[in-house]
Amino acid sequence: MSASVARILGGLLYYAPDSAAAEPFLAALTRLPELADWPEEDEVPYWCRVLHLTTEDKAYSFRVLFTAPEQGLAPVPPWGSVYQDAENRLDAASTRRYRAFLQTQQLLLHHTAGEPEDHIGLMLLTLAYLLEQEREEAVIELLREHLLPWSWRFVQLLQQATEGDFYPALSRILGGFLAELEYQLEICLPMIRLYR
């Protein structure tokens, strides 16, 4: 699958849509259908049209869905540790394992100070880099150990979100992308308990 798809999805989930950093990712939405061989050829163009036609305040939807005044209380938390920790904490054991993976891979993330590295947008941006560098073992480890075990729940919650159409539509594309990666790379996921 395409590193470009991972980068676009990661950027759209990490950066607030009213930020300058999000502009190139929003502009690239129309190219998503042609950037990869999608298993359901008609589905991605359909969801891209939905994304393009939404008139909602995407910045408001982003804040409502992904941020909250207290840790882990966002309706759709974008951090893996919230799903994998019994107390739904940020920066929990799964975050520390992911941080160790990043160090082993000699990857340094440029992100908001104090924010855990296991944000789904950051993880997708890291995946894009590893795909570009053709580091297949690292790609498989990132997906199997750090992203796929919890991202299905994130996708499910985002699809069920009632705040606007943009992010639920984006979750359909993300779900298809992750499923295709899992299939193509023949990833066998470990069984873990999710708490959210």
Describe the SSE topology.
Elements: H1 3-14, H2 23-27, H3 43-53, H4 58-66, H5 80-84, H6 93-104, H7 120-132, H8 136-160, H9 166-184
Helix pairs in contact: 1-7, 3-9, 7-8, 8-9
Write down the overall geometry: globular
In helices, the fraction of residues equals 55-70%
CATH structural fold name: TorD-like
Q: Main β-sheet, in a few words?
A: none
Organism: Plesiomonas shigelloides 302-73
InterPro entries: DmsD-type, DMSO/NO3_reduct_chaperone, TorD-like_sf, TorD/DmsD_chaperones
Pfam family, one: Nitrate_red_del
Protein name: Twin-arginine leader-binding protein dmsd
Brief summary:
The protein is an all-alpha fold and 196 residues long. The protein has helices spanning 3-14, 23-27, 43-53, 58-66, 80-84, 93-104, 120-132, 136-160, 166-184. It holds the Pfam family Nitrate_red_del.
Key attributes of the depicted protein:
TorD-like; TorD/DmsD_chaperones; Twin-arginine leader-binding protein dmsd; DMSO/NO3_reduct_chaperone; DmsD-type; 196 residues; single chain
Task: Characterise the protein shown here.
It is built from 9 helices and no strands. The longest helix is centred in the last third of the chain and has 25 residues, at 136-160. 57% of the residues lie in helices and 0% in strands. The model has no long low-confidence stretch (mean pLDDT 91). The radius of gyration is 16 Å and the shape is globular. It has helices at residues 3-14, 23-27, 43-53, 58-66, 80-84, 93-104, 120-132, 136-160, 166-184. The chain starts with a helix and ends in a 12-residue tail after the last helix. The protein has one domain: TorD-like (Orthogonal Bundle), CATH 1.10.3480. It is mostly helical and 196 residues long.
